[in-house]
Design goal:
It is elongated, with a radius of gyration of 21 Å. It is built from 13 helices and 13 strands. The relative contact order is 0.12. By secondary structure, the chain is α/β, with parallel strands linked by helices. It folds into 2 domains: about 160 residues, Nitrogenase molybdenum iron protein domain (Rossmann fold, 3-Layer(aba) Sandwich), CATH 3.40.50; about 140 residues, 3-Layer(aba) Sandwich (Rossmann fold).
Protein backbone atom coordinates (compact mmCIF):
# COMPACT_ATOMS: atom_id res chain seq x y z
CA UNK A 1 0.00 0.00 0.00
CA UNK A 2 1.50 3.44 -0.94
CA UNK A 3 2.63 5.57 2.00
CA UNK A 4 -0.01 8.25 1.39
CA UNK A 5 -2.71 5.56 1.34
CA UNK A 6 -1.30 4.11 4.55
CA UNK A 7 -1.45 7.53 6.15
CA UNK A 8 -5.04 8.06 5.05
CA UNK A 9 -5.97 4.60 6.32
CA UNK A 10 -4.22 5.30 9.61
CA UNK A 11 -6.15 8.53 10.05
CA UNK A 12 -9.41 6.65 9.48
CA UNK A 13 -8.44 4.02 12.03
CA UNK A 14 -7.54 6.73 14.52
CA UNK A 15 -10.87 8.48 14.06
CA UNK A 16 -12.73 5.20 14.49
CA UNK A 17 -10.77 4.43 17.62
CA UNK A 18 -11.71 7.77 19.10
CA UNK A 19 -15.39 7.18 18.39
CA UNK A 20 -15.29 3.72 19.92
CA UNK A 21 -13.48 4.98 22.98
CA UNK A 22 -16.35 7.33 23.85
CA UNK A 23 -16.87 7.93 27.55
CA UNK A 24 -14.22 5.42 28.58
CA UNK A 25 -11.58 7.62 26.94
CA UNK A 26 -12.77 10.63 28.88
CA UNK A 27 -12.93 8.66 32.14
CA UNK A 28 -9.41 7.24 31.74
CA UNK A 29 -7.89 10.48 30.46
CA UNK A 30 -6.35 8.68 27.49
CA UNK A 31 -7.24 8.01 23.89
CA UNK A 32 -5.99 5.96 20.99
CA UNK A 33 -3.96 7.79 18.37
CA UNK A 34 -2.71 6.27 15.12
CA UNK A 35 0.51 7.59 13.60
CA UNK A 36 2.75 6.25 10.84
CA UNK A 37 4.48 3.93 13.30
CA UNK A 38 1.40 2.41 14.95
CA UNK A 39 -1.47 3.07 17.33
CA UNK A 40 -0.73 4.34 20.83
CA UNK A 41 -2.56 5.29 23.99
CA UNK A 42 -1.77 8.93 24.71
CA UNK A 43 -3.14 11.47 27.20
CA UNK A 44 -6.40 13.02 26.04
CA UNK A 45 -4.88 16.36 27.06
CA UNK A 46 -1.07 16.11 27.23
CA UNK A 47 0.74 18.28 29.74
CA UNK A 48 4.39 17.61 28.90
CA UNK A 49 5.31 17.25 25.22
CA UNK A 50 8.69 16.86 23.55
CA UNK A 51 8.62 17.86 19.88
CA UNK A 52 11.28 16.67 17.46
CA UNK A 53 11.82 17.17 13.74
CA UNK A 54 9.19 19.13 11.87
CA UNK A 55 6.71 18.93 14.70
CA UNK A 56 8.54 21.98 16.04
CA UNK A 57 7.17 24.64 13.66
CA UNK A 58 3.51 23.69 14.17
CA UNK A 59 3.50 23.14 17.93
CA UNK A 60 5.19 26.37 19.13
CA UNK A 61 2.87 28.45 16.93
CA UNK A 62 -0.18 26.84 18.54
CA UNK A 63 1.02 27.20 22.15
CA UNK A 64 1.24 23.46 22.81
CA UNK A 65 2.43 22.45 26.31
CA UNK A 66 6.04 21.82 25.32
CA UNK A 67 8.86 20.95 27.70
CA UNK A 68 11.53 20.19 25.08
CA UNK A 69 12.22 20.74 21.39
CA UNK A 70 14.96 20.23 18.84
CA UNK A 71 16.88 23.16 17.41
CA UNK A 72 14.96 24.54 14.44
CA UNK A 73 15.26 27.50 12.09
CA UNK A 74 12.88 29.10 9.58
CA UNK A 75 9.95 29.20 12.00
CA UNK A 76 7.94 31.74 10.01
CA UNK A 77 4.94 33.19 11.82
CA UNK A 78 6.05 32.66 15.40
CA UNK A 79 5.18 35.59 17.69
CA UNK A 80 7.72 37.32 19.93
CA UNK A 81 6.17 35.68 22.98
CA UNK A 82 6.20 32.25 21.34
CA UNK A 83 9.79 32.77 20.21
CA UNK A 84 10.84 33.60 23.76
CA UNK A 85 9.05 30.49 25.00
CA UNK A 86 10.81 28.44 22.34
CA UNK A 87 14.21 29.87 23.25
CA UNK A 88 13.63 29.05 26.93
CA UNK A 89 12.69 25.44 26.24
CA UNK A 90 15.18 22.61 26.76
CA UNK A 91 16.86 21.67 23.49
CA UNK A 92 17.08 17.93 22.91
CA UNK A 93 19.10 17.75 19.71
CA UNK A 94 18.92 18.65 16.04
CA UNK A 95 17.33 16.73 13.19
CA UNK A 96 17.52 13.01 13.95
CA UNK A 97 20.47 13.51 16.34
CA UNK A 98 18.80 13.36 19.73
CA UNK A 99 19.89 13.57 23.36
CA UNK A 100 17.88 10.65 24.74
CA UNK A 101 18.96 11.20 28.35
CA UNK A 102 17.79 14.79 28.26
CA UNK A 103 14.48 13.76 26.71
CA UNK A 104 13.99 11.21 29.51
CA UNK A 105 14.87 13.79 32.17
CA UNK A 106 12.01 16.01 30.93
CA UNK A 107 9.49 13.25 31.74
CA UNK A 108 7.25 13.86 28.71
CA UNK A 109 3.84 12.20 28.54
CA UNK A 110 4.07 12.11 24.74
CA UNK A 111 6.80 12.63 22.12
CA UNK A 112 5.66 14.00 18.76
CA UNK A 113 8.05 13.45 15.86
CA UNK A 114 7.96 15.37 12.62
CA UNK A 115 11.22 13.83 11.42
CA UNK A 116 10.80 13.07 7.69
CA UNK A 117 9.88 9.43 7.20
CA UNK A 118 13.05 8.62 5.25
CA UNK A 119 15.10 9.77 8.27
CA UNK A 120 12.98 8.35 11.09
CA UNK A 121 14.87 5.07 10.81
CA UNK A 122 17.95 6.91 12.11
CA UNK A 123 16.18 7.40 15.45
CA UNK A 124 16.38 4.85 18.27
CA UNK A 125 12.62 4.44 18.38
CA UNK A 126 12.66 1.69 21.01
CA UNK A 127 14.49 4.01 23.37
CA UNK A 128 12.03 6.83 22.73
CA UNK A 129 9.05 4.51 23.24
CA UNK A 130 10.53 3.45 26.58
CA UNK A 131 10.36 7.09 27.66
CA UNK A 132 6.88 7.98 26.36
CA UNK A 133 4.53 7.13 23.50
CA UNK A 134 6.29 8.41 20.39
CA UNK A 135 4.21 9.38 17.37
CA UNK A 136 5.88 9.45 13.96
CA UNK A 137 4.16 12.17 11.93
CA UNK A 138 6.87 13.18 9.48
CA UNK A 139 6.46 14.33 5.87
CA UNK A 140 7.32 12.65 2.62
CA UNK A 141 6.65 15.77 0.55
CA UNK A 142 6.84 19.54 1.25
CA UNK A 143 3.10 20.25 1.13
CA UNK A 144 2.24 17.61 3.73
CA UNK A 145 2.86 20.14 6.50
CA UNK A 146 -0.86 20.98 6.27
CA UNK A 147 -2.15 17.47 7.00
CA UNK A 148 0.66 16.68 9.42
CA UNK A 149 0.22 19.94 11.31
CA UNK A 150 -3.40 18.98 11.81
CA UNK A 151 -2.41 15.57 13.20
CA UNK A 152 0.42 16.95 15.34
CA UNK A 153 -1.74 19.63 16.95
CA UNK A 154 -4.55 17.11 17.45
CA UNK A 155 -2.16 14.85 19.34
CA UNK A 156 -1.01 17.84 21.38
CA UNK A 157 -4.55 18.85 22.28
CA UNK A 158 -4.36 22.27 20.59
CA UNK A 159 -6.26 21.58 17.38
CA UNK A 160 -8.68 24.44 18.05
CA UNK A 161 -5.95 27.03 17.54
CA UNK A 162 -4.73 25.21 14.45
CA UNK A 163 -8.25 25.08 12.98
CA UNK A 164 -8.68 28.84 13.50
CA UNK A 165 -5.40 29.55 11.70
CA UNK A 166 -6.33 27.19 8.88
CA UNK A 167 -9.72 28.86 8.36
CA UNK A 168 -8.15 32.33 8.32
CA UNK A 169 -5.53 31.14 5.82
CA UNK A 170 -8.07 29.60 3.48
CA UNK A 171 -10.22 32.75 3.55
CA UNK A 172 -7.21 34.97 2.80
CA UNK A 173 -6.03 32.71 -0.04
CA UNK A 174 -9.49 32.84 -1.61
CA UNK A 175 -9.64 36.63 -1.29
CA UNK A 176 -6.27 37.11 -2.98
CA UNK A 177 -7.18 34.62 -5.69
CA UNK A 178 -10.33 36.57 -6.50
CA UNK A 179 -8.69 40.00 -6.29
CA UNK A 180 -5.77 39.15 -8.60
CA UNK A 181 -7.21 36.45 -10.85
CA UNK A 182 -6.53 38.60 -13.93
CA UNK A 183 -2.82 38.48 -13.06
CA UNK A 184 -2.88 34.78 -12.20
CA UNK A 185 -5.10 32.97 -14.69
CA UNK A 186 -3.23 31.60 -17.69
CA UNK A 187 0.13 32.86 -16.38
CA UNK A 188 3.07 30.47 -16.16
CA UNK A 189 5.20 31.15 -13.10
CA UNK A 190 8.67 29.78 -12.36
CA UNK A 191 10.03 29.43 -8.82
CA UNK A 192 13.79 29.61 -8.43
CA UNK A 193 15.89 28.89 -5.37
CA UNK A 194 19.59 28.98 -4.58
CA UNK A 195 21.59 25.87 -5.31
CA UNK A 196 22.25 23.37 -2.57
CA UNK A 197 25.21 24.26 -0.40
CA UNK A 198 28.43 23.87 -2.30
CA UNK A 199 26.70 23.31 -5.67
CA UNK A 200 26.79 25.53 -8.72
CA UNK A 201 23.74 26.77 -10.60
CA UNK A 202 20.28 27.03 -9.09
CA UNK A 203 17.21 25.02 -8.15
CA UNK A 204 13.83 25.25 -9.84
CA UNK A 205 10.70 24.14 -8.02
CA UNK A 206 7.45 22.96 -9.55
CA UNK A 207 4.03 21.93 -8.27
CA UNK A 208 4.07 20.87 -4.63
CA UNK A 209 7.53 22.24 -3.89
CA UNK A 210 8.87 23.84 -0.73
CA UNK A 211 8.29 27.36 -2.03
CA UNK A 212 5.41 26.74 -4.43
CA UNK A 213 2.79 24.99 -2.30
CA UNK A 214 1.47 28.17 -0.63
CA UNK A 215 1.25 30.26 -3.84
CA UNK A 216 -0.54 27.33 -5.48
CA UNK A 217 -3.34 27.74 -2.94
CA UNK A 218 -3.83 31.22 -4.40
CA UNK A 219 -3.95 29.82 -7.93
CA UNK A 220 -0.40 30.33 -9.21
CA UNK A 221 0.67 27.71 -11.73
CA UNK A 222 4.23 26.32 -11.83
CA UNK A 223 4.34 24.06 -14.91
CA UNK A 224 7.03 21.51 -15.48
CA UNK A 225 8.49 18.57 -13.65
CA UNK A 226 11.88 17.77 -12.22
CA UNK A 227 13.68 14.60 -11.25
CA UNK A 228 16.04 15.36 -8.39
CA UNK A 229 18.10 12.27 -7.64
CA UNK A 230 19.26 13.91 -4.40
CA UNK A 231 15.67 14.01 -3.16
CA UNK A 232 14.48 10.48 -3.90
CA UNK A 233 13.53 11.33 -7.47
CA UNK A 234 11.16 14.09 -6.39
CA UNK A 235 9.28 15.73 -9.25
CA UNK A 236 8.72 19.01 -7.40
CA UNK A 237 12.33 20.18 -7.59
CA UNK A 238 15.25 20.11 -9.97
CA UNK A 239 18.88 21.10 -9.59
CA UNK A 240 20.08 22.93 -12.71
CA UNK A 241 23.36 24.39 -13.92
CA UNK A 242 23.69 28.08 -14.74
CA UNK A 243 23.66 27.15 -18.42
CA UNK A 244 19.94 26.36 -17.97
CA UNK A 245 19.01 29.93 -17.04
CA UNK A 246 17.93 30.71 -20.65
CA UNK A 247 15.29 27.96 -20.33
CA UNK A 248 13.37 30.46 -18.19
CA UNK A 249 12.74 32.63 -21.25
CA UNK A 250 9.43 30.88 -21.82
CA UNK A 251 7.89 31.69 -18.42
CA UNK A 252 5.70 34.73 -17.81
CA UNK A 253 6.89 35.58 -14.29
CA UNK A 254 9.59 34.45 -11.85
CA UNK A 255 9.23 34.06 -8.09
CA UNK A 256 11.94 33.74 -5.45
CA UNK A 257 12.29 33.87 -1.66
CA UNK A 258 12.88 37.25 -0.07
CA UNK A 259 13.54 38.66 3.37
CA UNK A 260 10.91 40.80 5.09
CA UNK A 261 12.45 43.93 3.51
CA UNK A 262 12.13 42.48 0.00
CA UNK A 263 15.80 41.67 -0.51
CA UNK A 264 16.63 38.17 -1.81
CA UNK A 265 17.54 35.56 0.77
CA UNK A 266 21.20 34.77 1.20
CA UNK A 267 22.60 32.67 -1.63
CA UNK A 268 20.35 34.01 -4.39
CA UNK A 269 22.40 37.07 -5.28
CA UNK A 270 24.75 35.14 -7.56
CA UNK A 271 21.86 33.81 -9.65
CA UNK A 272 19.93 37.08 -9.81
CA UNK A 273 22.98 39.12 -10.80
CA UNK A 274 24.02 36.98 -13.76
CA UNK A 275 23.54 38.65 -17.13
CA UNK A 276 21.72 35.57 -18.45
CA UNK A 277 19.13 36.04 -15.70
CA UNK A 278 18.93 39.82 -16.11
CA UNK A 279 18.27 39.35 -19.84
CA UNK A 280 15.25 37.10 -19.34
CA UNK A 281 12.04 38.66 -20.72
CA UNK A 282 10.25 38.28 -17.38
CA UNK A 283 13.07 40.14 -15.61
CA UNK A 284 13.32 42.90 -18.21
CA UNK A 285 9.56 43.45 -17.94
CA UNK A 286 9.66 43.58 -14.15
CA UNK A 287 7.57 40.45 -13.81
CA UNK A 288 9.29 39.34 -10.63
CA UNK A 289 7.72 38.25 -7.35
CA UNK A 290 10.02 38.56 -4.33
CA UNK A 291 8.02 36.83 -1.59
CA UNK A 292 8.72 36.56 2.12
CA UNK A 293 7.65 33.47 4.07
CA UNK A 294 7.60 30.97 1.21
CA UNK A 295 9.39 28.44 3.44
CA UNK A 296 6.52 28.47 5.98
CA UNK A 297 5.38 25.11 7.35
CA UNK A 298 2.51 26.37 9.51
CA UNK A 299 -0.67 28.30 8.81
CA UNK A 300 0.59 31.09 11.06
CA UNK A 301 3.64 31.42 8.83
CA UNK A 302 1.64 30.91 5.64
CA UNK A 303 -0.51 33.93 6.54
CA UNK A 304 2.64 36.07 6.53
CA UNK A 305 3.55 34.56 3.16
CA UNK A 306 0.11 35.45 1.77
CA UNK A 307 0.53 39.08 2.83
CA UNK A 308 3.86 39.27 1.02
CA UNK A 309 2.52 37.43 -2.02
CA UNK A 310 -0.43 39.80 -2.26
CA UNK A 311 1.94 42.78 -2.27
CA UNK A 312 4.03 41.15 -5.00
CA UNK A 313 0.95 40.46 -7.13
CA UNK A 314 -0.22 44.02 -6.61
CA UNK A 315 3.04 45.30 -8.11
CA UNK A 316 3.17 42.70 -10.91
CA UNK A 317 2.71 44.39 -14.32
CA UNK A 318 -0.41 43.39 -16.22
Amino acid sequence: MPRRSVRAFAATVAATALLLAGCSSEDSGTRSFTADNGTFEIPAQPERIVAIGRAVPSLPTTDAPLVGVVEYSEMVGITEEQEKTYEDLQKVGSGAELDYEKIASLEPDVIISGIPLRNFTKVDEDRLQSIAPTLSLGPLTPYEWKDLGEQQTDAAGVSGIFDDQKAEYEDRAAEIREEYKDKIDGVNFAAVEQADQGANGFTRQYTGGWITNIPEDVGLNFPGEGADTENNGATFTEALSSEKIPDLRDVDAIMYRAEADGSPVAGLEELLSQSAFQNLPAVEEGRILAVNGLWAETYAGALICLDSLEEALKNLPN
